[in-house]
Design goal:
Elements lengths: L1 E5 L10 E5 L8 E11 L1 H8 L13 E9 L11 E4 L9 E5 L4 E2 L6 H6 L1 H14 L7 E4 L5 H13 L2 E5 L3 H9 L4 E3 L4 H8 L5 E6 L6 H6 L1 E9 L13 H5 L4 E3 L10 H16 L7 E6 L3 H9 L6 E5 L1
Helix pairs in contact: 3-4, 3-9
Bound molecules: NADPH dihydro-nicotinamide-adenine-dinucleotide phosphate.
């Protein structure tokens, strides 16, 4: 037997139970990995609470790093003992997880297991947000909410390396300090941020807003954009944005709005490997510093969710089986 987190119904963090389960068996084209660390991502709180529908019994988790224990039929590019990571598995809140070969990312020697588990989902997200949802160019000014969060700390560093000016929002002094250390040029609190962004940009506004907070920030995010600016709404940590009149994009200055999700930006092996390689290389050569803000034993997944939803975490949150 092995252990995994299992929920039998939607609800609060308490529905996440530590249970004994049969270890999964890799099918054709799959790998079985012994999970060294599983990444916790905000989407799992939406799935757990019922905002996103799932099937029960439900084991959360898309992200993990670990060592291959067994390979299914037809697997050629990976062997038992190799270290791999993924952003696109299922049921990774577990001691063992199955990963499709085409979604497995080889982990370079210079990247440790915790970094490897921390990077794939939020790193690939940061990569597609700044390259593909909206292409940030040197000299652009960017507003990024939750600057000390998992995506926030990675995206800030990548944007600074690109030559952008980065304005972030955060909710505490500790988070402000972390956001600054990641390279943010200006760190704001949420209250009144749209007016402050105008002041900081000589009345013009920013080229792009990356908004993963959603309901609480959406209106002021739109107000922070310059003419022909882009609103990239990529999450809903404060709740979903209510229905919206597209005419507001006209009034705001011919703005554009997109609501992207990672799966659409890793459409094939080439695209996945390109994004992952750039992120892992940046971590291996020190350009990108990865902050694991908290680790929890797997059995304490519920507490990890409480802390993530309670805005108590910074950087990446990991579960350790
Ligand atoms: P974070 O580590 O950024 O945690 C969320 C942060 O949001 C909190 O720490 C908090 O920072 C901020 N926040 C603001 N308001 C609230 C609120 N009411 N309740 C809780 N948190 C709030 O998480 P991630 O980096 O994992 O994800 C950030 C966002 O990106 C999420 O919305 C997530 O769903 C989204 N996402 C989207 C992806 C995509 O492809 N579309 C992929 C990955 C993530 P503070 O206290 O400073 O305000």
């Amino acid at each position: 037997m092995s252990h995994a987190i299992v929920a039998n119904k939607p609800g609060g963090p308490e529905v996440l139970e530590y249970a004994s389960v049969e270890p999964p068996v890799p099918g054709a084209g799959q790998l079985l990995i012994k999970v060294a660390a599983a990444g916790v991502n905000f989407i799992e709180t939406y799935q757990r609470s019922g905002i996103y529908k799932v099937q029960y019994p439900f084991t959360p988790g898309a992200e993990a790093a670990g060592t291959i224990e067994a390979v299914g039929e037809g697997v050629e590019d990976f062997a038992v003992g190799d270290r791999v990571a993924t952003a696109e598995a299922t049921k990774t809140y577990a001691e063992y997880a199955v990963v499709d070969v085409d979604k497995a990312l080889p982990v370079p020697a210079g990247v440790d297991d915790h970094t490897a588990a921390a990077l794939p989902l939020q790193g690939i997200t940061a990569h597609y947000l700044m390259n593909s949802s909206f292409r940030v160019e040197p000299g652009h000014t960017v507003l990024l909410h939750a600057g000390a969060g998992g995506v926030g700390l990675l995206l800030t560093q990548l944007l600074k390396a690109r030559g952008a000016r980065v304005i972030t929002t955060v909710s505490s002094d500790e988070k402000a300090e972390l956001s600054r250390l990641a390279g943010a040029d200006e760190v704001l609190r949420y209250e009144g941020f749209a007016d402050k962004v105008r002041e900081l940009t000589d009345g013009e506004g920013v080229n792009v807003v990356y908004d993963g907070v959603g309901k609480d920030t959406f209106d002021d995010s739109l107000r922070s954009l310059r003419i022909r600016g882009a609103m990239v709404l990529f999450g809903a940590a404060s709740g979903p944005v209510p229905p919206f009149d597209p005419q507001r994009l006209n009034a705001g200055g011919s703005l554009s709005l997109t609501r992207p999700t990672m799966g659409h930006f890793v459409q094939n092996a080439h695209e996945r490997r390109w994004r992952a390689a750039e992120i892992f290389d940046a971590a291996a050569n020190g350009t990108l510093s990865v902050r694991v803000g908290a680790t929890y034993p797997l059995a304490e997944a519920a507490q990890a969710h409480r802390d993530l939803e309670g805005r108590k975490t910074t950087g990446k949150v990991l579960l350790l089986p």
